[in-house]
Amino acid sequence: MTYYLTTLLVYAAVDVLACLAISLQFGYSGIVNFSFIIFQAAGAYTAAVLSLPKDTANGGFQTYVLGLHLPFPVPWIGAIIVGALLAPPIGLVVLRRLRSDYQAIAMLVISVIASLMITNTPAFLDGAAGLSLVPQPLSDIFNPYSQSYLWVYAIGGIVVAAIIFVVVQRIINSPYGRSLRAMRENELAAGALGKNAVALKMTVFVVGGAIAALSGAILVGFITTWAPSTWLYPETLILFAAVIVGGRGNNYGAVLGALLVPVGFEEATRYLPPFGPPGLIPAIEWVCIGGLILGFLWFRPRGVIPERRRIFAPAKPAAVLEESGAGRH
Amino acid sequence: MSLIVAALGFGLVSMSIIAIAAVGFTMQFGITNMINLAYGQVMIASAYAAYALNSRGVSIWLSLLAGAVFGAVFSFILNRLVYAPFQRKGTNLIGMVIISLAVSLVIANVLLPIVGYYSVSYHLNPGPTIHAGSIALTGVQLAIIGVAVVTMLVIHALLRFTRLGKAMRATAANPTLARNCGIPTSRVIDLAWLITGALCGIAGVVAGMNSDSFSVASGSEFLIPIIAASVLGGAGHPYGAMIGAVIIGEMTEISAAIISPEYKQVAAFVALVLVMVLRPQGLLAKRGALAAAG
Questions:
Q1: In a 10 Å sphere around its CB, with 0-12 CB exposed, 13-18 middle and 19+ buried, how is residue A248 labelled?
Q2: Which domains does chain B have, with CATH numbers?
Q3: Which residue from B35, B99, B294 is facing A97, i.e. has the nearest CB?
């Protein structure tokens, strides 16, 4: 029971983190990052190879690079750095000159190719089999199988999610956040006002990538395995479904969506009696995710908790100009 | 060296398949201004529709025709039921991409329980192998090349010499102006979905004929070279897609021969990245994938 509850809480924290990053990128800035899941994967792999001992250790049944066996906070910090560093090269190719829908398909292709390359290069991160026996944080000091360890981990994950929530909230409520929304609503107009859209997008891409990588590190520290099958491109679409259902451009909506869609779906199907041939239930689940996106975009495009309509007092003419594009939908 | 020449031969087959698919994909984009990411899944659904007939003893060529009809009708319904209503509602470009990806997920997972998880292959007689130097192609592969050549000629004739083709080009260039000139744009768009859907269906079946086996998972694999070829040639530009298909088809096969077959898609991806960095508008189009502001 403890194990079940703590697992649920850790997954909730990870999904909330991921949805906050999507909310920042997609909800506030209008970037459709279909390669989102590879940032989470990069974080998870980094945390794994930084905390694992050399690959010759456990009888050498898996092969991977590094294997530095570093103490706890270092793998997570490393993951954040790698997530942030992965963003600029992708962003420079995709975000500079392409039309918005081309940006989306380019990222989708990147996601598919990344998974293909990792799968076909076993020497790098153990290919399709993936990494396992990743040491839990501080497992050499505390017993990672004790109930209290599980609870502390779960609560720690929630605390991290709460901190990131506050950080993202601060970003979007700052003047900088207003620039982001202006860019989302009308990139041309924002550019005419002297906002550098490419720089804005790149920054959001880096911050979102770092948050995604952190979520991956937290997840891999708990479940101790990570393989290409856990980060196929449809996983990104689940997170988009969550943000669309919860409400675009609204962090409360992102949190609600994270709890309803990825967490809720997992839990709902857990209690279903198994029926049909194996694999029927996951297939139905995916159809439901697709249907959820279509249904919400049709009937309630602004989500369960819509973005707050921002009304600005006509203080200075300059301020009115800057905000006139930002509050609309 | 002979390995590379042999790869050039396989490249001819690859480019034929990519050309059929990419011309359909890029025309859908040109005329409806939306990127249909469900294209790969419609291809695989058509391949299975043809398989349903073929496995019951119908000849592969009749099944190919059935696959084309299935692709046409499926694409038409998809547009009428999902895409057109959302576009009428004023959904933006990004919204349409998300919608088409959601649709592709739904198609793949509705198909999965129906056709099963195992790979299937067509019953066909590969025919005599024909040698020309180090190039060795089976009769079926030559037939695929023939199908592609005929399809390309038909599309060329359609666009250049018929009233419908003219109306299509006008609708692609400026839908509002076309409507004001008395062109029934909604009917033109319906016909465009039927025609591109048929291309999609043909491409799905010939892709299945060329590979040893295919499964539902092949759908998203198909899409990468198609996107690469379309973007390379200039999105929305059928002739550009043909040129793109030639380049991508040869590139993937030669890299498969030199490096490793597992990295086939990676070669297509590298080409895509180079185009996006160096010439995002593509080889032929003026606008292509370029942002309006850029």
A1: buried
A2: 2-125+141-278 (1.10.3470)
A3: B294
